[in-house]
Amino acid sequence: MRRTLTENVLILGAGLVGSSLGLALTRAGYDVVLWDIAASHALVAAGLGAGRVSDESTDNPDVVVVATPPDVIPGLVAEVLEKFPDAVITDVGSVKAPILRAIDRLAPEHRRYVGSHPMAGSQFTGPLTASGDLFRDRTWVVTPEPENAPADIAVIEKLARDVGARVVTMPAAEHDVAVAQVSHVPHLMSILTASHLRQVPQDNLQLAGQGIRDVTRIAGSDPSMWRQILTSNASAVRHELLEVAQDLAFLIDQLERPEQLEKFLGMGQAGALSLVGKHGQDPIDVLEVTVEIPDEPRALARLFTDIGEAGFNVEDFELTHDQIRQLGYLSISVEREVAEQLRANIVERGWHAWSGSRK
Ligand SMILES: NC(=O)c1ccc[n+]([C@@H]2O[C@H](COP(=O)([O-])OP(=O)(O)OC[C@H]3O[C@@H](n4cnc5c(N)ncnc54)[C@H](O)[C@@H]3O)[C@@H](O)[C@H]2O)c1
Ligand SMILES: O=C(O)C(=O)C[C@]1(C(=O)O)C=C[C@@H](O)C=C1
């Protein structure tokens, strides 16, 4: 009979994610056992406090987490499904549907496998770069299938919550489209920017500041790991890249058209703001303040400068146009308790603004 209290977790793959999970679960009171094809990785992880090294003969886990590179996940899941007939199995692979299809071929009876993916990591690999706080306040996606038992899904969701993550549940195919948009294409944009630097003369590189470092951090990631991620999600990634290619062609055409260019830059700002408050924290309680935007060059930029100088944090905004008057309306969402201060502040700076949306 399945144990109801999850205490023993076996982690296969004691790299960045596996060791971070070991650290976080150990801290949360779980008994963690580690195994890695590179024995030194499991030893180092254990030395850091991520669990103890598996001796294989006595392993009797309630849960097995496969935290290896994606290509070897299906084979390992099939192996542990057979080896531990009472355990719930999950993995942390970055693409879900292809892993599920491969497991389907290798182990048709796989109802104890519940796929998952923590949206937390870094450009580094191996146990020495692990952190017990990696999953805190981050999203952990669980991708159950209809044949999974609710109790097994609950075990994986609890494990994610016990390491401080916020659980989001969605079908594997939807997950793969979403990560193409928020993880895989952004990764490639970083790679494009970083690889372009190879053509920049050494003398010019010494001018590099923080901006380029922010944009290229994830380009330092392991190419072999990302080759596996991207090839297995190629069709969703291709779809997004074609859209980006259209945007790039459009942008090149707008470079000498100041108004169009500013509009395009504003879309970037809006895109960046759409991520605010979406890192797993509780949603922020917001209120809208609407500002009339005169149809004149740089009006929008001036307003954002005023808001920035006044020290307000904009959570979101939307621009609409008046069909009759030559005006725009910018609805700005800010934290409820500062909305009235924001309205008063920008009115003082000469803007026509009111609380609430444009009616
Ligand atoms: N790095 C990230 O940002 C990140 C974030 C979320 C999920 N993931 C996913 O997590 C998984 C692990 O990534 P990572 O960043 O921890 O990589 P990593 O290289 O740091 O760790 C992978 C570990 O797996 C071990 N390994 C390889 N083949 C094995 C096998 N057959 N059996 C047992 N161990 C084996 C390696 O020796 C290594 O210790 C990947 O599937 C990746 O898609 C990565
Ligand atoms: O923060 C980073 O370094 C990451 O790239 C982490 C990141 C991401 O894109 O958010 C990368 C791949 C994983 O599948 C999940 C998380």
From TrEMBL:
Reaction(s) the record says it catalyses: prephenate + NAD(+) = 3-(4-hydroxyphenyl)pyruvate + CO2 + NADH
Residue ranges of the Prephenate/arogenate dehydrogenase domain? 7-286
Enzyme Commission designation: 1.3.1.12
Record bears the keyword Protein biosynthesis: no
Broad class of enzyme this protein falls into: oxidoreductase
Record's keyword annotation contains Cytoplasm: no
Q: Which InterPro entries match?
A: 6-PGluconate_DH-like_C_sf, ACT-like_dom_sf, ACT_dom, NAD(P)-bd_dom_sf, PDH_C, PDH_N, Preph/Arog_dehydrog, Prephen_DH
Q: Which PROSITE patterns match?
A: ACT, PDH_ADH
The coiled-coil regions, if any, are none
Copy the pathway line from the protein's UniProt record: Amino-acid biosynthesis; L-tyrosine biosynthesis; (4-hydroxyphenyl)pyruvate from prephenate (NAD(+) route): step 1/1
Keywords assigned by UniProt, alphabetized:
Amino-acid biosynthesis, Aromatic amino acid biosynthesis, NAD, Oxidoreductase, Tyrosine biosynthesis
Classification via NCBIfam families: PRK06545.2-2, PRK06545.2-3
**What is the protein named?**
Prephenate dehydrogenase
Native species of this protein? Tessaracoccus bendigoensis DSM 12906
